Amino acid sequence: MSHSSDLIGSDILGYLRAHEHKSLLRFITCGSVDDGKSTLIGRLLYESKLVYEDQLAALEADSKKVGTQGDNLDFALLVDGLAAEREQGITIDVAYRFFSTERRKFIVADTPGHEQYTRNMVTGASTADLAVILLDARKGVLTQTRRHSYIVSLLGIRHVVVAVNKMDMVEWSQERFDQIVAEYHSFAAQIGLHGITCIPMSALCGENITSHSAVMPWYTGPSLMEHLETVVVEQDNQAKPFRLPVQWVNRPNQDFRGFAGMIASGRIAPGDRLRALPSGHEAILSRIVTHDGDLPQAVAGQSVTLTLDREIDVSRGDVLVAAAQPASVADQFQATLIWMHEQPLLAGRPYLLKVGARTVTATLSAPRHKINVNTLEKLPARQLELNEIGVCNLNLDRSIAFDPYADNRETGGFILIDRLSNDTVGAGLLQFALRRADNIHWQALDVNKRSRSTLKHQRACVLWFTGLSGSGKSTIANLVEKRLHANGRHTYLLDGDNVRHGLNKDLGFTDADRVENIRRVAEVSRLMVDAGLLTLVSFISPFRAERQLARDLLGDGEFFEVFIDTPLAEAERRDPKGLYRKARAGELKHFTGIDSPYEAPENPEIRIDTTELSAELAAERIIALLHDKGVFDSDDDSALAAL
Amino acid sequence: MHPLTHLQRLEAESIHIFREVVAECENPVMLYSIGKDSSVMLHLAVKAFYPAPLPFRLLHVDTTWKFREMISFRDQLTKQLGLDLIVHINQDGIAQGVGPFSHGSAVHTDVMKTQGLRQALNHYGFDAAFGGARRDEEKSRAKERIISFRSAAHRWDPKRQRPELWSCYNTRINKGESLRVFPLSNWTELDIWQYIHQQNIPIVPLYLAAKRPVVRRNGTLIMVDDERMPLEPGETPEMLNVRFRTLGCYPLTGAVESNAATLPEVIQEMLLARNSEREGRVIDHDSSGSMEKKKQEGYF
């Protein structure tokens, strides 16, 4: 054990150097007082020499006064907590204990095992790499064993130790141990729990705790401590795709803009391509900044500050991910919820949802079902009470970046907060995103897009004009519409400035408002396409992600991205509305091209270079494109020729 | 594979906590007590926000009975690092002449420390206060949250403490309520010493053994730090080689005899020691579970 090391006395510096390389293991112990859980933890602390003489003196006194072990030390008393609990003889919260050996430091989440404390066990399990599930060799696999194992599996713990305790009470019987192991394995297979190590032991007698037991020579596996010291858990998170929820933007001066956070998974090095979610902007990692100097690489579990090679919009709550293996973005989910508050879950009430560093508003559906944690049966439910686990649909007020919880705990686990009391009322595990159509059912209408379009002898679509302010979007869009109209087409032009006077007059020019601006216009244009119209949209729409959103709302072949490509210098020279002059003078903030980015389309349906083409020629090209793509009924070909 | 060491993981967790609270709270402050845990906490805070300066102020609730060396260390360090330090003294307590000798340890601590802290938090309207407490210090602290919720009256109500899952913290509060934040929750005394050694963090010299004037009272060695210490008839201070495992008000802090004059020697002694760190704190001996009572009343 660590603190009996000879090095302490003879070579303290050597000892300190050796101990700088210790790793850390967090584990949870599941079981009840009856299983000897407190005794086991007390024993681990005692054996690792972390009990001092004054504590030992108190322990001896307490053992005589309230202990259950006669004249022997009652190790359980070492780990008792609050005075009230001590009187009741049970622990009712999550207590964290610490001990260390030559090889590792351990953090133990000590939680009660009763069903009414499921909340505590879930909390303790959420940060554990490993679970020690205790059972009594006399009783074998009980209902509570199943419950504990289910929660361990639900919370994504990949390493499980089944501590078959009280072997002294079954005469150290190998037969009994094998029986229990077989029973446990068959149950574990049902719930998909893997990585199981079964150890026969007696916490009371100290057998198979820190060293191999002489009274059970038939057992050849590791003692509990040997296993805890050597089990490899680090690769679990480092092998996953890179994720960093941005906690804080570090901007001490104009020259430095760093994104601070703890790496939730994966690894990273300068030169890696990153994507910011949910916006979708990409950049290359320049530096990994720490107070101890720049790092050549960083891995899951480190708190770092990242700088990027270009200015992209990233703020607290966004997630930086590996561009090649991005997280998903969605606003509707199915999730498993663990309810943690006396006030039951209310379907339809908005709660705050925090995942990583982002807090959004979430509305929950009524539970699809709840789970009987003892039998694992799915039961119908209208609400969830304290300590109940169920599956619900969530609807968020904005999209978030996420991974399924099974893939990543930090980007898939969330808490729910009551908006009035600010209490944490529940925890959740994201399962998967729901597609809109799965959730909101469209009214099926007899007169539909197709019939409306057919009546107008056209195939409804959107012409999405994007480009810098002053690039000529509105001029060209206006010309296109005039010609279509003159030829009897049914059209509508949504112009950025005009829509901002009405539908979107509540929105400004921050990035968030720009996104919402485009989202609304995309939705309106979809309705217009549904109405059978040739819909022209003339908006700067600077972000790829929102144009993609608009594209995704429409069917194949219904969305034409028209990139009005005018260089910034040229647009600024024209400056038809005098806006560039104002922006340069600092009178206009968030002006695209000046202090707000414009992301040029990568694959537009058509690109118009206004330095080469006049507005009239541009309009002709665009109408020719529509013709090629079959937007007009074929018998209108002759009419088109006249345009 | 690149396994992190336990100190790297503890450091990363503490930095994460600092950043989260600074990002979400309006007016955080760090309670700086000058001790070794505060030294580590300050070091971690500087790391968390580098290259930006510390985005919050430091608060020292001075009971006026701290060791003189603590105060000179504090003033030198804050000057050197350019830190914005508030020193708060409960002037009501001063006016009433409250002190450990005249009023006893319980009243002195309650008035000068607990009430003094509340006064300062209310006066400056701090909504979150970082403190250097650790879960391994005392049994009732094993269940303390990293982010501990306090009512508008600064009371700790076990029922209102929030479950803490993953590294997802709920820092939301209503007006008047506040948070105590413990970035060192998962550190042990050994971790603290190892980290101080590894990072070369400055600490008050009182932690290292030196000849100091002490008197022996009820089996505890008390240092005679200034002339306010009343000597009992026949009592004369003796010069002994002593050091301190924790630092607080000098009349309430027991010294241990030791020859450990360097940090590695202190760690060596600690590892070989047979008594726990808090033994030297007079406050813990009052009654079983007293820390929990103090916490409910607003003592850290």
Walkthrough of the structure:
The complex is a heterodimer of chains A (643) and B (300). Chain A is an alpha/beta fold. Chain A is 30% helix and 26% strand. Chain A has a 7-stranded antiparallel β-sheet with strand order 7-15-11-12-14-9-8, with no helix packed on it. Chain A is elongated and about 100 Å long. Chain B is of the alpha/beta class. Chain B is built from 8 helices and 10 strands. In chain B, helix 6 runs antiparallel to helix 7 (263-272). The interface between A and B is large, with 81 and 69 residues.
List the helices and strands and how they pair.
The complex is a heterodimer of chains A (643) and B (300).
Chain A: H1 6-10, H2 12-19, E1 23-30, H3 37-47, H4 53-66, H5 83-88, E2 95-100, E3 104-110, H6 118-126, E4 130-136, H7 143-154, E5 159-165, H8 174-190, E6 196-200, H9 224-230, H10 235-238, E7 243-245, E8 248-253, E9 256-262, E10 267-268, E11 273-277, E12 282-289, E13 298-299, E14 303-308, E15 319-322, E16 328-339, E17 350-355, E18 358-364, E19 369-371, E20 378-379, E21 389-402, H11 409-412, E22 413-417, E23 424-433, H12 436-439, H13 449-455, E24 461-466, H14 473-486, E25 491-495, H15 496-501, H16 511-530, E26 534-538, H17 544-553, E27 559-565, H18 568-574, H19 579-584, E28 606-609, H20 615-628, H21 637-641
Parallel strand pairs in A: 1-3, 1-4, 4-5, 5-6, 24-26, 24-27, 25-26, 27-28
Antiparallel strand pairs in A: 2-3, 7-15, 8-9, 9-14, 10-13, 11-12, 11-15, 12-14, 16-21, 16-23, 17-18, 17-22, 18-21, 19-20, 19-21, 22-23
Chain B: H1 6-24, E1 28-31, H2 36-49, E2 57-61, H3 68-81, E3 85-88, H4 91-95, H5 100-124, E4 128-130, E5 147-150, E6 178-181, H6 189-199, E7 210-217, E8 220-223, E9 238-243, E10 254-257, H7 263-272, H8 290-297
Parallel strand pairs in B: 1-2, 1-4, 2-3, 4-6
Antiparallel strand pairs in B: 5-6, 7-8, 7-9, 8-10, 9-10
Helix pairs in contact in B: 1-2, 2-6, 6-7
